[in-house]
Amino acid sequence: MFTTLWNWLVNALFGLPGAIWRFAVGFLTWLPGALLRLPGWLWRFLWINFKPLMQILILPGLAFILVFAIIAVWFERKFLARAMLRVGPYYCGKRAGLLQVFADFLKLFMKEIIIPYDAERAFFTMMPVLVPTLPALALVLIPFDQNWVLFDAGSLSLPMFFAIAGLAPLIPIFTGWAANNKYTAIGGFRVAFLYISAEIPLVICAAAVAIMAGSFDLVKIVEAQRDMWFAVPQFIGFVIFFLGVIIEAERTPFDVPTAETELVLGWRTEFSGILFGFTMMAEYVAFQAWALLFITLYLGGFNGPDIFGSTMYSHIFWLLLKFAILVPIIILLRCVFPRLRLDQTLRLGWYYLTPLAVLNLFIVLALKLWGVA
Amino acid sequence: MTEPEIKPDIMRISWGPQHPMSGQTRILLDVDGEKVHRIIADLGFTHRGIEKILENRTFLKGIIPIERMVMVDTANIGLGYVLAIEEALGVEVPERANWIRSMLCEMTRINSHLYAFGLQAEATGYFPAVFLWTTIDREVLLDLMEKLTGARWSYNFFLPGGVHHDLPEGFQEEVLEGVDYLRRRFQQYWDAMVENATFEMRCKGVAVLKKEDAIRLGATGPVLRGSGVDMDVRKDEPYAAYGDLDFKVITETAGDSMARLKVRFHEIEQSLNIIEQVANEIPGGPVKTRVPLFARAKPGEVFSRVETPRGEMGIHLFTDGGMNPYRVKINSPTLRNMYVFERLAELDEILVADLTVVINSIDPWYLDSDR
User: Fold this and answer.
1) Is A344 part of the contact surface with chain B (CB cutoff 8 Å)?
2) Which residues on A lie below 8 Å from B138 (Cβ)?
3) What is the mean pLDDT of chain B?
């Protein structure tokens, strides 16, 4: 036993330089060829994966999210300023303060990140990075065309959207706890209350849509709306979902969790620098995901007349156009409505939206039974 | 301030002085979830010892620091002190000066109420649109007052024995124009705030203060009148020209935050009426009687009351025969209303979200309560 081990050790020790040498020689002979072939490999990789890469980098992916966040912030500042008899951003950029958002984004990058002494460091720094991730994950399920879906989950796509979105309130709750501040704690719990009260009517409405379309597949749901948008037969569901989108995106009449005049900034209070930037961006990403789902379920999704000669491009165009009309409406609600209280928002969710969603479901079932839809 | 003890299962939030809506004060809240159990107002962050400063200045020079008490409403505060001095020195005021005083006081009253609306709108989570509208409309009044007194905020226009100078030429017409403009604008504020269903949800039935409680706790101003008590110093003990002017004392019976807001709304209408009356019917004559610069008052004490936008302000002035007041005690409306505010959590259920609405419905000015 001992001799065997000893022999092995001696062999291993004396054999090691040889092994390293042989590996080095092999590697160095392999390397020039590999380097020569590298562009070819990359090119093949790009060629095979061109569409998914484009989708990740451009349309439902990175560029779309960033461009939307920038345009939405700019629009919000500039147009709400008009409502307030102000001018809004003015000096950065040649026209209308277009570069102000970039300047602020850069500023957020440069700022010091202050972590409170009592905070749970790991959670505190990790969570803001995760906040935009979940809505962005939900975004991959949205079909921009039959052939332009980043992740085609088939008949699982609608349930999957709600599963991912259902995880979203966990992060504010964790952050609220991790920051170890009373305002963040209250804000975190408000998030939990709010999302639960909003998501139940939303799920019931989505179920009604799925029944009418005969499928949970978002692509099939859109295709079922070719002749008539579901907003027409399911008008109640349309209104409920519209309110639900505003609640989920924490936009103004229901921005209870981050209520500035009450809770400073709710669960975001303690964040600074780019961590705060991430939480701000998350708001817009969630807004984007829910607004696109709303359009997909009720406003005919990517349906529209063929104008570019290519169905795919015109589909993408129509979806983006509907999105571009819906978003300003929701943003401009902010200058008309004061914020509701938490209990009022919850009462809205539980007393009005949920029963109405059930009513909507029964209407859809009746239509389906009588064979109208 | 020593912090009172907390019961178990109750979280204490320190609301302010670093909070977007708190202003220069700290309010300790004992909350159980969203419900506020107890409110403790920790005042005194802006104490500047104005009462002590007044002791070291002659009567005339005292008008300058006392106006710093409420920057948005310097005319009413200044008038309170000037009335006390006049009583102490035994000075008669010409009638025209009294009418000018009433006009300027009503202008700052509107100014102050506009500020209160803006803050109330912002407190409900209205995007600060309404706040900026009111700020812009205040410009109309500020321009008028600048034309009259030469300053936008701190006028030092009222002197013992009258006002500093007469109305400028063509001033009455400009005032009437401004009144017309503001009447139109107030209809818009009424639509944007009182008629707005969401705003009503936030303010109606919030922090109800019953009539008995309002009297017992010593509320004053719109807080008292919003609870249905018909009390206004301008009517009860007319000073300046209020005895000759025609206006109503506004009361609302509901006693909630909305009622206090409505009282302010209707008071603005009355103030506009008063300004219009003054501009139309102001009598002629001199605007000041001569008072020696370093006048000495007889030993004794005087008390003057004025109705500021926040409520009744009393100034108790002790004189000892010198050129300065011996002692000045200011009874400020915000301090009285802050006592009411502290008790509101016991009288009615208040949620954390309601707090900004409630505190802005009493329209506090912390510099006023801290003096």
Assistant:
1) yes
2) none
3) 87
What contacts 24+ positions apart, CB below 8 Å, involve B12-15? B13/A182, B13/A183, B13/B352, B15/B355
If you ran DSSP here, which 8-state letter would residue B288 be given?
A: B
Range of the domain at A220: 122-369
**Interchain contact B64–A (C-beta under 8 A):** no
10 Å Cβ neighbour count for A194?
A: 23
Assess if residue A2 is contained within a domain: no
Q: How far is CA B272 from the centre of its chain?
A: 16
Q: Hey, are the CB atoms on B20 and A80 less than 8 Å from each other?
A: no
Residue A188 resides in a domain: yes
Inter-chain touch B353–A256, beta carbons under 8 Å: yes
Q: Which residues pair with B163 in a beta bridge?
A: B158
Phi, psi of B135 (to 5 degrees): -60, -40
- Considering only residues 187 to 206 of chain B, which have any Cβ-Cβ distance to chain A shorter than 8 Å? 196, 198-199, 201-202
User: Touching check for A156 and chain B: CB below 8 Å?
Assistant: no
Q: Tell me whether residues A340 and B34 touch, CB distance under 8 A.
A: no
The model's pTM is 0.83
* Those residues with Cβ within 8 angstroms of residue B15's Cβ, 6 or more apart along the chain or in another chain: B22, B26, B27, B28, B29, B355
Residue B127: pLDDT above 70? no
Q: Among residues of chain A, what percentage have pLDDT more than 90?
A: 13
Q: Who has greater pLDDT, B215 or A12?
A: B215
What average pLDDT does range A266-290 have in this prediction? 86
A247-274 pLDDT, tens digit per residue, is 888 887 888 777 777 777 788 888 888 8
Where helices occur in B124-170 by DSSP H, the ranges are 129-149
Distance from CA of A356 to the nearest CA of B (A): 21
Q: Are A172 and A257 in contact (CB under 8 A)?
A: yes
Strand partners, B301: B318
Closest CB to A338: pick one of B126, B132, B136. B126
The answer to whether the Cβ–Cβ distance between A343 and B351 falls below 8 Å is yes
Chain A: residue whose CA lies nearest to B29: A182
Confidence of residue A188 (pLDDT cuts 50, 70, 90): confident
Residue whose entry in the numeric block shows the structure tokens 């009413």: B76
- Closest approach of chain B CAs to the CA of A91, in angstroms? 21
Residue A263 lies in a domain: yes
Choose the weakest-confidence range: A94-98, A109-113, A229-233, B125-129. B125-129
Task: Note whether ipTM > 0.85 here.
Answer: no
Share of chain B above pLDDT 70, in %: 98
End-to-end CA distance of chain B: 18
Q: Which residues make beta-bridge pairs with B316?
A: B303, B329
Q: How many domains does chain A have?
A: 1
**Which site among A183, A251, A258, A341 would you substitute to test the B interface, given the most B Cβ atoms closer than 10 Å to its Cβ?**
A341
pLDDT digits (tens, 9 = 90+) for A101-122: 888 888 888 888 888 888 888 8
Q: Is residue A325 part of a domain?
A: yes
- Name which of B33, B127, B196 is nearest A80 (Cβ-Cβ): B127
A198, amino acid identity: A
Domains of chain B: 59-332 (1.10.645.10)
